[in-house]
């Protein structure tokens, strides 16, 4: 758990109640090599923080070939952000490459944590503008909303309110 808290503290301060809230919602999960954390054709139900091990994002192409397109190492979050956030069916698998230990949170608990301790959507959007000013004008709003973890409608309201 210390690894997760240390990771979060890189981005800002936490008070004791926030740390207690995070730890109370966390569950330790062990997966063995080749186990799936998330599967194509199913809605992702958990977000994980990798304590030990390596995961890969993979899919099968139209020839049935196994294609790996991304790896997640320890001290990183493992999640299909877009599918998890929108609660839609995943098109990729997230598979353990090695035996893994992860801290997991349910969608409900993750949303509660995000809403109580994370930056609000407006703050995230303003940070995005500051970090990626050139990207803003050349990228579809749907991609930006996905990146920020909000709906396109929410992004439109935020943009309208800050003008």
Percentage of residues in helical conformation: 40-55%
Beta-strand segment tally: 8
Strand proportion, as a percent range, falls in 25-35%
Low confidence ranges: none
Structural class, by secondary structure, is alpha+beta
Round the Cα radius of gyration to an integer and report it: 17 Å
Please name the fourth-level CATH homologous superfamily of the largest domain: Jelly Rolls
Secondary-structure element series: HHEEEEEEHEEHHHHH
Supply the CATH architecture of the largest domain: Sandwich
**What is the number of helices?**
8
Distance from N terminus to C terminus (CA atoms, Å) equals 41 Å
User: What CATH first level of the largest domain would be assigned?
Assistant: Mainly Beta
The order of strands across the largest sheet is 1-8-3-6
The count of domains is 2
The pLDDT mean sits at: 89
Summarize the biggest pleated sheet: 4 strands, antiparallel
Instruction: Determine the CATH topology of the largest domain.
Output: Jelly Rolls
Shape descriptor: globular
What does this molecule look like?
It is a single chain. The longest helix has 11 residues, at 107-117. The protein folds into two domains: 2-116, Jelly Rolls (Sandwich); 119-162. It is α+β, with helices and mostly antiparallel strands and 163 residues long. Helix 2 (16-25) runs antiparallel to helix 4 (107-117) and helix 7 packs across helix 8. The protein is built from eight helices and eight strands; from the N terminus they run ααββββββαββααααα. The protein has helices at residues 2-9, 16-25, 81-86, 107-117, 121-131, 133-138, 141-148, 152-162; strands spanning 27-31, 36-38, 46-52, 55-60, 66-72, 77-78, 93-96, 100-106.
């Amino acid at each position: 758990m210390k690894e997760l808290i240390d990771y979060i503290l890189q981005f800002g301060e936490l008070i004791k109640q926030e740390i207690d809230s995070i730890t109370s919602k966390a569950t330790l999960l062990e997966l063995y090599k080749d186990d799936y954390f998330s599967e194509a054709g199913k809605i992702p139900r958990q977000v994980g923080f990798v304590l030990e091990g390596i995961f890969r994002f993979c899919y099968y192409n139209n020839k049935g070939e196994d294609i790996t397109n991304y790896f997640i190492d320890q001290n990183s979050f493992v999640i299909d952000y877009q599918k998890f956030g929108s609660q839609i069916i995943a098109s990729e698998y997230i598979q353990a490459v090695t035996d893994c230990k992860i801290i997991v949170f349910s969608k409900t608990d993750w949303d509660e944590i995000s809403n109580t301790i994370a930056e609000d959507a407006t703050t995230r959007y303003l940070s995005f503008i500051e970090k990626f000013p050139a990207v803003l004008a050349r990228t579809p709003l749907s991609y930006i909303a996905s990146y920020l973890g909000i709906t396109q409608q929410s992004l439109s309201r935020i943009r309208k309110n800050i003008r």
